[in-house]
Amino acid sequence: MKKKRLIPVLLLRNGWLVQSKQFKRYQNLGNPVSAVKRLSEWASDELIYLDITRDNSYDMRRDDLGHPNRHSILDIIDDVSKVAFMPITVGGRIRTLQDIEQRLALGADKISLNTAAIDNPQFVEAAAREFGSQCIVVSIDVRLDGEAYRVVTKGTSQVTDHTPEDWAGRVEQLGAGEVLVNSVDRDGMKNGYDLDLLDRVARRVRIPVIACGGVGDWEHLADALEQTDVDAVAAANIFHYSDQSVYLAKKYLHERGLNVRPADLLAI
């Protein structure tokens, strides 16, 4: 039986890794590479690396952190791929097939599309045709608008008419290989995944659904795997503040009887 995956998410903003809260409050965490090496050593199944930089500025304004201060996303991806011993999905600021090609050439295994897919849905189809559905992930940011779920984009500033399940079905038809469903309302709140949202999307599509947004305890990861049909559980902030966090999370899920790979540590 196919194993369920546990996927850390790293957010890059202007050259720094950051912690996010509801897509509007950010706390700097450190340089963009060292966390990747740690996550590799803790045997993460995969890594999602999202660039949420709004301008074209990549500058830590620090040269004393033991890591080169890179000034472009491509240089950062190149550094990241050299210490990542797990499949990497790279997202953010991707608008063209050339953007995808550059990231894949530097070591990305999959690409995550968000705004570009909303602005031009046929871009999903073109990307899947060119590079294969297996490397095209569509990231779907969702927030409650009254009592209705709506897909949002451009950092939540644009609310679309799409419901998350309809949009997931559309991008599946266009060739996406996976969807990453992120609850803006739960982001950084530590109150658990929006299980109703995940269930709606997972029931609608056949492609793998990755859950994201709200994890504050290992039990929240188990809740999504036990109560919905998601294929993977992803989280960001929770993996930053304890040593061997991915190992501990996988150990918890495996001992709970969930169909995940056993916890492991790698010497890298």
From TrEMBL:
One of its GO terms (molecular function) is lyase activity. Keywords: Amino-acid biosynthesis, Histidine biosynthesis, Lyase. Pathway: Amino-acid biosynthesis; L-histidine biosynthesis; L-histidine from 5-phospho-alpha-D-ribose 1-diphosphate: step 5/9. It catalyses: 5-[(5-phospho-1-deoxy-D-ribulos-1-ylimino)methylamino]-1-(5-phospho-beta-D-ribosyl)imidazole-4-carboxamide + L-glutamine = D-erythro-1-(imidazol-4-yl)glycerol 3-phosphate + 5-amino-1-(5-phospho-beta-D-ribosyl)imidazole-4-carboxamide + L-glutamate + H(+). The keyword Lyase applies. Belongs to the HisA/HisF family. This is imidazole glycerol-phosphate synthase. It comes from Noviherbaspirillum saxi.
